[in-house]
Amino acid sequence: MRSDFAIRLVTHLYWIKKEAFALERDIYSYWTIFAVEDGRFIYRIEDRQGEAGLGSLVVCPPNTWFHRKTLEPLSFHFIHFMWNAEPSLEEIHSLSGSLKIIDIERLRSNYHYLRLLALEQDETAMERKQHLVSDIWRLYELETNIPREIGLNGMLADVEMRTAAQFIIDNAFGPIDLKSLALSLQLTPVQLTRRFRAAYGMTPSEYTTRLRLDRASKLLLETELSIDKIAQLCGYENGFYLSRIFRSKRGMPPSQYRSMPRV
């Protein structure tokens, strides 16, 4: 992929917990990104189709039908943009569909500030949004063009471990079979665990738990859902089990976390 592509922001909107799209398909005059912050949906853009959730940037070229359907309530950033340089037909295809980002913490940070600016459309706000959207794109570009990344302990995370991390991100909130993941990478579960820990400083199970508890924390703060319901949405059987894990990893039960004063 060329490294000289840069995004010029046209429009940014933020949708919260959208139960369903008003239209099952739509067509836009600009390049469009659906940047998912929470929830999941399925999409089809010409011959590209699949499921998208956190970590996915679903990109649709202009004047192209965008088919979509929510699988669960969807919070996402809706972005219209243009490129600084016109892509070729081959590049248009490579820039379309679901583009994956591995560095979820960096992505969440950008989403947080975009969310704070969502209702503002003045020149200053748009300049700030431009910076944030550009940073998201450069993050994707960096991860795509550099085939290896430095892990938390200085080791190299190879393409197979990046694939493993993305699989966990895509499946963290439902049944997840790490043994099958290892087999798909032609590794034993022990090899997968050892290499994943070397790359990311934690085991695949610990990474799954972190993603689940991050989501549980967000739901505790932003919704009035019961602990049992939050547990189901985060991949746990019941609220009792979630409470036990949450207390162990976060130092307090979910009920106490929810009741803490916010500043």
From TrEMBL:
Coiled-coil-forming residues are none
Family matches, as Gene3D superfamilies: Homeodomain-like
Q: Which SMART domains match?
A: HTH_ARAC (SM00342)
Report any Pfam family annotated for this entry.
HTH_18
Tell me the ranges covered by the HTH araC/xylS-type domain, including all copies: 162-260
Keywords, comma-separated and alphabetical: DNA-binding, Transcription, Transcription regulation
In terms of PROSITE patterns, this protein maps to:
HTH_ARAC_FAMILY_1 (PS00041), HTH_ARAC_FAMILY_2 (PS01124)
| PANTHER family xrefs | ARAC-FAMILY TRANSCRIPTIONAL REGULATOR, HTH-TYPE TRANSCRIPTIONAL REGULATOR EXSA
Q: What name does UniProt use for this protein?
A: HTH araC/xylS-type domain-containing protein
- The organism named in the record is Paenibacillus aceti
